[in-house]
Amino acid sequence: MKKKQWQGWGPGEQAEQHYLVQPRALAGGGDIRHVSEFLRASGWQDRSKKDGPLLMESPDRTVRIAYDPYVLPGGWTIHGQADGLNDKWSAYLGRQTPVEIVAGLTDALNRPRSAHAPNVWAPLEEQKWHTRFEGQDYTATSPDGTTWMQYQQGPDGGVMWWTGAKDRQGNGWTANFTPNTPIHLVQAFSAELASPDPVMRPRGRVPLSAQIRTWSVSVKPSQLTAWQQARITTARAAVWARNSARSTQPRATARPCAPANGTRTRR
Asked: Looking at the record, which segments are called Disordered (predicted)?
């Protein structure tokens, strides 16, 4: 393992050993607060029961996100209600889906949609993933062969997005999205899936896999707190910006009504 030292330590703190892990898809689940704290800061309501699984609800009550590690196979479930643009949709992500990749989708739920048409495959192609047709399915595979994304069509004509990662020891995860899942959310997920940036895991939380690369780093608690706070600050700033934009929009004023007989009165 390579050793790397981070700058900017504060006085009197004891550094803790962490590891940077590549590829990120095989880094293990990680700390779910990476997802949940961003949602809270974005105005989501925590509907979790005491000592129960995580359950978050969007401010407009149209989307629910749950994480349940207490059932098999466990993991993330995301349900969206029908709205003016989409029918109801769902996404299911395995327990070992890295939280950084999950956040690609969940963070995007709090951002306005781009004016550009979404393209799920673009982030994968930019990172030189291999794309091919397999019958009626279209598949993209990472250069190291550990991670894939597939647009899958079943015998009954039904379609879905299917993705995941697996090493030679059989460790990994899978996820799927129903056909009505908004494409910009699937693209946000694929962008984090394909990102070459490593993710960080504390000592003892790095999966045993021959197909990952790790770098040892010394990190102080204040640094971890600062990085987490930066994410929260970003979420709160976005909420403030949206609320400010709404409050500055001009209100429509009522036009004076003409008398019933169609004549106008003079003052």
From this structure: 242-267
For 111-132, what is the mean pLDDT? 93
Domain contains 263: no
DSSP letter at 216?
E
Domain count, the chain: 1
Confidence of residue 153 (pLDDT cuts 50, 70, 90): confident
19 located within any domain: no
CA 103 to CA 217: how far, in whole Å? 23
| DSSP code per residue over 90-149 | EEEEETTS-HHHHHHHHHHTTSPPPSSPP-TTHHHHHTT-EEEEETTEEEEE-TTSSEEE
At 237-263, the pLDDT tens digits run 989 888 887 766 655 544 444 444 444
Alpha-carbon span 118 to 185, nearest angstrom:
9
Domain carrying residue 148? 2-6+31-240
- Going across the sheet that includes 2-5, the strands are 2-5, 213-219, 16-22, 199-202
Which run of H or of E encompasses 20?
strand 16-22
Residue 79 belongs to some domain of the structure: yes
Model pLDDT for residues 62-107, shown as the tens digit of each residue = 999 999 998 888 899 999 998 877 789 999 999 999 999 999 999 9
Residue 110 forms part of a structural domain: yes
| 114-125 average pLDDT score | 93
86 token code pair: 């989409």
What is the three-class DSSP state of 200?
Answer: strand
Angle at 228 between CA 211 and CA 202, to 5 degrees: 35
